[in-house]
Design brief:
The protein has 9 helices and 10 strands. With 266 residues, it is an alpha+beta fold. It catalyses: guanosine(26) in tRNA + 2 S-adenosyl-L-methionine = N(2)-dimethylguanosine(26) in tRNA + 2 S-adenosyl-L-homocysteine + 2 H(+).
């Protein structure tokens, strides 16, 4: 896990074919790196993987996948992987797909190279540079039908496993996770970046829902915020929160991410 969580990116590349980044979402990133590695190895033999369940718990990751054979479907694999651009200052991240799959006449699928990058040289929120990680698996990491069946099997026979309570807890959180949103932010990361008090998870989730975005928890981290809101919306909400409990501006360095983010009016 130390290698997958970003402690030595070059070792991670030699073992899994992807660069791991040090980030708050490192546990989910570890799962996605393993899935990318499995798919890459399977592709060499005209096969591809479909994740059924991917779990990060304690200090290990465990993935359950099905392997299928199909030369035509293997071509879609490049569009399932993505590079991650992560700001070193505020931690905002953007995903860049490696390939593009688009519909063509006659129900065919056309594959092409993706266009990018999705970021400017400096972060639009805090002016710092970006780190590049990945490629990682960018598609859903769970099959919710499968998870539902496992949850039902465990619930109907709770005495079968000593840890059935925990299994049910983890699987229940997984069923509520946003399937199409890779990675997440954490509450302490957002508040420590601008040096303010930490809002409650409920407050931040309510603010995102009222702004019209989807939001969920993550099984991989207890104070994670998984949302389809762009980083600009998240920082806007944090600026409004900072108005409730102001930060002493004179203590902030003019080059710090906090100074850049808070100098913009919400």
């Amino acid at each position: 896990m130390a290698v997958l969580a970003g402690n030595s990116g070059e070792t991670c590349y030699s073992k899994y074919g992807a660069m791991a980044l040090k980030s708050r979402a490192c546990h989910e990133m570890a799962l996605r790196i393993v899935l990318h590695s499995l798919d890459l190895r399977a592709n060499c033999y005209q096969r591809f993987v479909v994740p059924l369940l991917s779990i990060s718990a304690d200090f290990y990751v465990r993935v359950f996948v099905r392997v299928f054979t199909g030369q035509a479907k293997v071509k879609a694999s490049a569009s399932k992987q993505a590079l991650v651009f992560q700001c070193v200052g505020c931690g905002a991240f953007h995903l860049q797909r490696l390939g593009k799959a688009s519909g063509a006449p006659g129900g065919r699928v056309k594959f092409s190279a993706a266009c990018g990058p999705p970021v400017t040289p400096e972060c639009e929120h805090c002016g710092q540079r970006h780190q590049l990680g990945g490629p990682i698996w960018a598609e859903p990491i769970h099959d919710l039908d499968f998870v539902g069946r496992v949850l039902e099997a465990v619930s109907t026979n709770p005495s079968r496993f000593h840890t059935s309570e925990r299994i049910r807890g983890v699987l229940s959180v997984i069923t509520e996770e946003l399937p199409d949103v890779p990675l997440y932010y954490t509450l302490d990361q957002l508040s420590s970046t601008i040096h303010c008090n930490t809002p409650s998870l409920l407050q931040l989730r309510s603010a995102l829902l009222h702004a019209g975005f989807r939001v969920s928890l993550s099984h991989a981290c207890k104070n994670a915020v998984k949302t389809d809101a762009p980083a600009s919306a998240l920082w806007d909400i944090m600026r409004c929160w900072e108005k409730e409990c102001p930060v002493k501006r004179e203590r902030l360095s003019e080059t710090s991410p906090a100074f850049h983010i808070l100098s913009v009016e919400p």
